[in-house]
Amino acid sequence: QVQLQESGPGLVKPSQTLSLTCTVSGGSITTVYYSWRWIRQPPGKGLEWMGAIGYSGSTYYSPSLKSRTSISRDTSKNQFTLQLSSVTPEDTAVYYCVRKGDGKYDFWGQGTQVTVSS
């Protein structure tokens, strides 16, 4: 069974960089055909896809967030990381790491609340 676990600070100050790590167990992030994604849900709003890193290390970003987003990975630790720069209170959300395989989001982390506030 694949498990994903988000980790990182729950409070970030405006203009700083938010950094979250997803640790994957039960499966390798380099397994062919799977991609690993970050999705967030602001309070009272729907899910927003932020970006992804594929099994080969290729990255893909939401056009609306591309200028502020970076996704990387550490294959030795089976982790992938989200960095979102220049955060504002509008970036307050629950952040999820997710695996996509066979055309569907099949495994989700439990989500981590990040609040942007001074």
Structural description of this entry:
By secondary structure, the protein is mainly β. It has strands at residues 3-7, 11-12, 18-25, 35-41, 48-54, 59-61, 69-74, 79-84, 93-101, 104-108, 112-116.
Concise account of the structure shown:
The chain has 118 residues and is mainly beta. It contains no helices and 11 strands. The strands form 2 sheets. Strands 2, 4, 5, 6, 9, 10 and 11 form a 7-stranded mixed beta sheet that branches. It has a 4-stranded antiparallel beta sheet with strand order 1-3-8-7, with no helix packed on it.
- How many strands? 11
Largest sheet: 7 strands, mixed
Q: In DSSP terms, counting alpha (H) and pi (I) runs of 4 or more, how many helices?
A: 0
Q: Percentage of helical residues?
A: under 10%
Low-pLDDT runs: none
Gross geometry: globular
Following the backbone from N to C, one meets helices and strands in this order, namely: EEEEEEEEEEE
**Sheet/helix structural class:** mainly beta
Strand content: over 45%
Mean pLDDT: 97
Q: What kind of oligomer do you see?
A: single chain
Task: Give the N-to-C terminal Cα separation.
Answer: 39 Å
Indicate the radius of gyration in whole angstroms. 13 Å
